[in-house]
Structures are given as structure tokens and as C-alpha cells.
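Researcher: Please translate sequence to C-alpha cells.
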Amino acid sequence: MRRRKQSGPVDVAPDGMFVLNLADDERQSFNHFLDELESLLNEETDDGRLRRLFPTAYHNDALHDAEYQRLMRSELLQSRRTAIDISRRVLDSHDALSEGDLMQFMQTINSLRLVLGTMLDVSEDDEAQEIINEEDPNAPQMHLYAYLGWLLECVVDALQNSLD
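Model: Translation complete:
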């Protein structure tokens, strides 16, 4: 029997589909962030904010890493663009989502979080810190980073609950 997660941002429907419970203003904000992410991806530069989206594969071998980037970057880029397109469709609709659509939405949330984490220079040590200093000029971005982490966790929980 399936367990249903109640009153969260992602519910598992009785038919195994998923329901995204985001208010319209949250959906609009997400679409804005998707526009910014897509713009950043379309610049096709070595922008440092993309560092975690296209990580180094060979830390000790620049030649091998350059070859890996040459072979894989366009595929990774296309995957992220596809996830953004599906995420737009997910956000623009209030219909139930398939597991595949939710997985693409999850990839996009993770991409946004990786870029934001890079901009904020978040480290693993910072992950444990749950209290945000409201006096910090980056406090709004830190709240967004925390929200994206929470939402990512909720998506993972819903996917896991669908398997039970």
C-alpha cells in the first residue's frame, strides 16, 4: 500500500503520479529563476558560477579533463536545458506529474541550488549551519538556498514514498 505524504510541496497521488503544491507566486518566482539559469547556460562561457554544473572530472590531469569537457559538456548542457523546459511545463500546469517529470524538476532545482551555492561560496561546513544571520547582505540568497534544499529533500521523499 502506498503511503501519502500530506500537506507538503510534493504529494504522491493514489495512482502513483505526483502533485506539486506550490502557490502561483512561487511558480512565478521559479520561472524567473529558470530564465536566469537558462540565460547563464546560454552564455556558453567559462562563467565561474557554472563550476559545479560542469565539474572537473580529472583533477590531476588537465589534458584528460579538457578532453572530458570537450566530449561531455554539450551533452550535460542539453540535459540541463531539457530539464529546464520540462520544469517550465511543470510550473505552468497544475496537472499531476509523472515520475520522469518530477525527476527533471528535481534536476533543475539541484542546478539552481548548485549555481546559488557557488555564488555564495557554500561549503560542506556551511551546510551544517542552519541559522542564517539576517544582518548578512546575502541573507535573502541564503534563505533561497535553504528553501531549494528543503524542496529538493521533499521531492526525494516523495519519490521514495512512491516506492513504498
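Researcher: Any highlights?
Model: The two ends are 7 Å apart (CA to CA).
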